[in-house]
Amino acid sequence: MSQIFDKRFNALTAGGVSLGGGLKGIEKEALRLDLDGYLSRKPHPVGLGSALTNRFITTDFSEALLEFVTPVYSNTWEALRFLCDVHQFAYECLEDELLWIASMPCRIPADAEIPLARYGESNVGQMKTIYRRGLGFRYGRHMQTIAGIHFNYSLPESFWPRYQAAVGDAGDEQAFRSNQYLGLIRNFRRFGWLTLYLFGTSPAMCKSFGSGADIGMQELSADTWYAPFGTSLRMSDLGYSNQNQSRINISLNNLDDYIRDLRNALKTPEPDYENIGVKVDGKYRQLSANQLQIENEYYSSVRPKRVAHSGERPTAALKRGGIEYVEIRSLDINVDDPAGINQNTMRFMEAFLIYCLLEESPPFEAVALDETSRNQSQVAREGRDPAFRLLRDGKEVPLQSWATVILDKVGMIAGQIDVAEGGKSYTQAVDSMRSLVDTPEATPSAQLLHELKSGGHSFFDYAISVARGHRDYFAAINPMSKERHEEFSQEVRSSLERQNDIETGDEISFDEYLENYFASE
Asked: Does domain 2-516 have CATH number 3.30.590.20?
């Protein structure tokens, strides 16, 4: 595959095409918990505005699961600064609560006692809550309390026509861009095991996840399960990489097929979900009994995305304008970073995604897809085991040798970004990842287990201590600028006004609203 990469890379560099300036945005989830470390039962803090309409602070599955959203920036430092600022602002509004600092959850109650996110009485607000109720019935509420980092990325607009010319494509620019992004996505699926190895930070978890049932894992302490060579239990079969969606086949080989397959899953009944029921005793349990309730239910470590117009469905947005950016969903929260992510991670991810774009990316066949799924789940569970082997084209290969080949190419990309932006920060980020490949015990997952074992800590006791430290960190650092604080405050006020406008503007019943939603494409 290196010949294709080298040809494209050389064409870009010979043509003076910059690889810097890509747009980066972060979505970071964090559970609210009480000071004793139990999942918060309090409603969404009033000081954070409307979870339905606030652009920067919303909720995910649970009322207690905050989600912080940054705008997109070309500079990693700006994205990180915004993320730190939004943490500071959120802490101002929390009363006697902490933010959990890990991907695997804190002490959580029985499934039925985990509160669903609430978005008000509007039709769209009810739909969001019912969708989450359906997720709970389908997959269990425990799984939905797992948190992560989403990294959104797009190449700059100026890149695309020059790249298209460099590779000798004279076709439609929108189609070219979508096809290239799909190639990136397929390669991220092929090579994404590397991100689990490098950034996985969830090799252990509290036994309250799964209500203390024996799940076939080793016991680190009386209330902690762990995988000795695990990297990311969040991305293993215990977390989001589960078997519930195994019958759904969504093509990544071209955009029309991707949209077609997603829409078919929205229309195809699923017997297990029919047994749940849709509207039972006058109350919705889920939006439908089909394989997917809405497009976003389909879980993937990477998604093609386009910013949708108001009321526009994700597949309709993609069909209208093609792929605008990619959303990477496989990053664990880094427990050592108060914001959950650092600039080194963002810089590496940017260079890695450009590598995935430039590398050869043949269409997926069933065997290749099975290999990618196997590699991901196995790295998540045992990626640091010296005896572990990946599968590549049906043959076993050591993780370190394949990772080294990839990092050599990613390093070339990083060097070109440094040329565009000045300095050596991207090259240094890739070099720091090389050291983790050479020294598995230095990976975040290994370091976390070392802290637990050497200190005699349970996962919960260690994480709650770090959570208190992060709270104190945000209280101690320099306050955000007055302008940024006012931006957040104004967004709180505006979000409440927007929610009120939505609620007073509804003119049809929820049943009619839902029928109209599913009739649209």
From this structure: yes
